[in-house]
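INFO  loader      accepted 1 record
INFO  loader      residues=444
INFO  predictor   begin
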Amino acid sequence: MPDLPTLDIDKIASLCKRRGFIFQSSEIYGGLASTWDYGPLGVELKRNIKDSWWNAMVWERDDMVGLDAAILMHPDTWRASGHVETFTDPLVDCLECKRRFREDHLDSETCPECGGELSEPRMFHLMFKTHMGPIEEDASVVYLRPETAQGIFVNFNNVVTSTRKKLPFGIAQIGKAFRNEITTGNFIFRTREFEMMEIEYFVMPGDDEDIHKQWIDDCLSWFEDIGIKRENLRVRQHEMNELSHYAKNTFDIEYKFPWGWGEIQGIANRTDFDLAAHSKMSGERLTYFDNTTNQHVTPYVIEPSAGVDRTFMTVLVDAYSEEETVSTSGKKETRTLLKLEPSIAPVKVAILPLSRNEKLTPLARSVYDMVRRSEAISGHIQFDDAQSIGRRYRRQDEIGTPLCVTVDFDSLDDNAVTIRDRNTMDQIRVNIDSLTSQLSIKLK
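INFO  predictor   done
INFO  writer      dumping tokens
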């Protein structure tokens, strides 16, 4: 694999468009800045990432439940949370080229694009504002949520009452959020519309610091489980001047991208800020009754919050590899492949007839139907008979398909097929009757 600092993000973006992972949104109209559409392979990879996270963080634990809250919420939600008053970034304008930048992201006092003079900073609000109903007036203002967390906090009593969960316990949610960022870029790393995988984990005050540390370890383990190399991950604690208004302490899990380290997950200790703020604003007590002390307690909250899109990009960058190979004719070639963990690969197995010969097609289709209907294999199975077998191998390597099954003319006589491994290119011959069990073993 090439050293990450030399890997060109444009190369990743090109692969994504060429192979159907990600397209520029509204491309036929010139596109809309920092908005992206996930293509046929992109939706598969994205779904597999979310399913893996949900399985690890919710289904495999007995202290977690799920929620899917509305994007539009009562505007008092954002007043109580502090977003209306404090969710801002410092904006500066270049007086020469007219570009705009976040002041806190600049390394100098001049424009990074042209070296021109910058304006005095002014605060820019990051929430998208709209109106509910037919009349646009102050009373009808609502916001697109900038985070999914508040939907969890305002439903705290509903969840406790309906599930009877005891502290500590968590509520997980996957959903869209929106932030009117001043500067976007690095492909899908920083966008204005994005998806979050978020947990609010409620604990007794005093237990928060130990549980905070445990969640950092658990989150790191999940990134490793989906194939991210540990040497490309680090944990960074926020400085005091970085902490959000609600945070007692925050740690970021960062990945070593080609441009440097970038946050892919934040794990914050939000204390009792949110529940206390919503209790005060709404007049409804959001507390937990502790049977051991016969007292109402406002729990502290540990919040592991990961970006789906940033995780998607991390997976692609970490899996991207180029290898020098030699063709059957002796010519040197570069093989591009995504060494994706099989559990998240968008295509698990590709069925490849050696050619479109009418004698091969019925058997190849029969093998394809058998594999995709097998209960032993979960995920997308692809049938690919376009172009030469060599080109199809390269195409499947480039989209990260772990295994290819080749149906050739010998298959008509020996009832066997060839399984090819993506990473090693090793091939083994197996009987069709045992194919699904062999594939299942290799995909684990």
